[in-house]
Amino acid sequence: MNCPSISVAMSVYNAERFLDEAIASVRAQSFADFEFLILDDGSSDASRAIIARHAAEDPRIRPIIRENRGLIASLNQLLDEARGSLVARMDADDICLPQRFERQRAFLAAHPDHAVVGSWSEDIDELGRPYPIDGPDHPTTHAGFLAAIEAGAPLLCHPAVMFRRDAVRGVGGYHAAFRHCEDLDLWLRLASVTRLANIPERLIRYRHYPGQVSSRHATEQQIGAAIAHLAYEMRQAGLPDPTADLDALPPLDELDAMLGRAGLASAVRARVAPALLYSHTGLRDHGFELLCQHLREGGRRDGMWRTVARLVRFGEPRRAARLAATLVAG
């Protein structure tokens, strides 16, 4: 059987709300030589029925149905199952524009020194309406990509990415330790061995809504991202990657001992704290304790009194009082 040019990799978990539109947008691509791997990760809603209906209509779709193992295990299984030399990531709640695969495949054919290419996104809400984003678009060149790493800026929109399968497998695929930021860790590892870029076209409609992972796990995602950046800096300095063999990241209080380097936990808190100041979720979960510890360690206080007022508006007067007491004590 001839191998397709592209393997589309989609992991699905209880995604019935947006799944039909996401699958349809892949099927409607102008470049048609692909297989569409849809892995249902133990859904309990109507996702499997939606997948089955599309598979009956389109022989390019290869359903993989199994029990729940989590996103990272699913992504690595999709890499193993892929027959195409190029893999296009796609999520079950987003929408591909029709020219996406055609544009990205042409870019990689013209740039053999690049293993990863993403695109800009059109951001939408749960109803498909424009979703305002305050910030620059993703970098378009590898040099811009490296500058964005140094600045801690966003790099790639994961469901908009196409990559060379062998390059990703060559760096170990997705690492289990970086739950909820597995893509960032992967891009940082790849940045040392290949070139990455984004096409300056909006080739995906990226959806924002309260139930998505980045909303539900904001603090854990920020902590993982900070550790991924520290690991990148250590690799760039010629040091061994302290996270390479981890199945899970340790609690922050154990980070220095487990990774064998003093000051890492404080450095992580210093990176994460500014991102928590405006986060409804982070200020209500364990991110609040991280913020207070950061202040007790002598961390920067810019904007902290405004955060006290923000906590009051969020309906968290006790946490507002604790943050104020921490500021006064310092």
Can you describe what's shown?
- This protein has helices at 16-27, 47-57, 71-81, 100-110, 142-151, 165-170, 182-190, 213-216, 218-236, 252-259, 264-276, 280-284, 287-296, 304-313, 317-329; strands at 6-12, 34-41, 61-66, 86-89, 95-96, 114-124, 162-164, 195-207.
- The protein has 330 residues and is an alpha/beta fold.
- It folds into two domains: 6-215, Spore Coat Polysaccharide Biosynthesis Protein SpsA, Chain A (Alpha-Beta Complex); 217-329, no CATH class.
- It has an eight-stranded mixed beta sheet, sandwiched between helices.
- Helix 13 runs parallel beside helix 15.
- The protein is globular, with a radius of gyration of 21 Å.
- The N and C termini lie far apart (68 Å).
- The relative contact order is 0.10.
In short:
The chain is 46% helix and 16% strand.
Query: How does CATH name the architecture of the largest domain?
Result: Alpha-Beta Complex
CATH superfamily of the largest domain: Spore Coat Polysaccharide Biosynthesis Protein SpsA, Chain A
The pLDDT mean sits at 94
CATH C-level class of the largest domain is Alpha Beta
SSE order: EHEHEHEEHEHEHHEHHHHHHHH
The fraction of residues in strands falls at 15-25%
Computed over alpha carbons, the radius of gyration is 21 Å
Structural class: alpha/beta
- Counting DSSP E segments of at least 2 residues, the number of strands comes to 8
Global shape: globular
The low-confidence parts are none
CATH topology of the largest domain: Spore Coat Polysaccharide Biosynthesis Protein SpsA, Chain A
How much helical structure, as a percent, in the residues?
40-55%
Task: Report how far apart the termini are.
Answer: 68 Å
Strand order of the largest sheet: 3-2-1-4-7-6-8-5
Biggest sheet: strands, sense, closure?
A: 8 strands, mixed
Number of helices: 15
Number of domain modules: 2
